[in-house]
Amino acid sequence: GTSPGDTHSLSGRRRPRSQRATSDTPSDDDNDNQPFSGIASSIIQDEYVQSRYPSRPAAFASTPTRLCRLTPITAKGTSSFGKRHNKTHTLCRRCGRRSFHVQKSTCSSCGYPSAKTRKFNWSEKAKRRKTTGTGRMRHLKEVHRRFKNGFQTGTPKGARGPESQ
């Protein structure tokens, strides 16, 4: 049971003219509060704000502020981030990470081109990742092997051939 005063959206009745959307309630045709809708809002990159001192004739002084003229401003937010297509960091020659700042010419990870490698005592886990033994250790593996044999040099005794007296 619906009473005659109900205005349900699925009922086939039309609302009386007095109950229809007025200027206080927003409707689909009311685009005063949004300057662009649909595809136009996604295409336009500039952000718009209401001008602080709109130039309106004195006759329209009592009209609401939403009818103010919209002025484009330089967007510092989302639309600016889409225009960045130059890389600030490139590969470092020393550590191989993409941490070498092109304009500063310094690596943010290892500190290249300074002679000392960048490391801090507050970054204990980072020191563990970069310390000796995490890489190939081409030279130190050989030094350790030679240490076990007492750093012997020359050819071994058996390879010299028979000893002649």
TrEMBL record:
Residues 1-10 have a biased composition (Polar residues). Coiled coil: none annotated. InterPro entries: Ribosomal_eL37, Ribosomal_eL37/eL43, Ribosomal_eL37_CS, Ribosomal_zn-bd. GO terms for biological process: translation. Pfam families: Ribosomal_L37e. Residues 126-148 have a biased composition (Basic residues). Keywords: Metal-binding, Ribonucleoprotein, Ribosomal protein, RNA-binding, rRNA-binding, Zinc, Zinc-finger. GO terms for cellular component: cytosolic large ribosomal subunit; preribosome. Residues 1-40, 123-165 are annotated as: Disordered. It comes from the Eukaryota. One of its GO terms (molecular function) is zinc ion binding. Belongs to the eukaryotic ribosomal protein eL37 family. This is 60S ribosomal protein L37. It comes from Aspergillus nomiae NRRL (strain ATCC 15546 / NRRL 13137 / CBS 260.88 / M93).
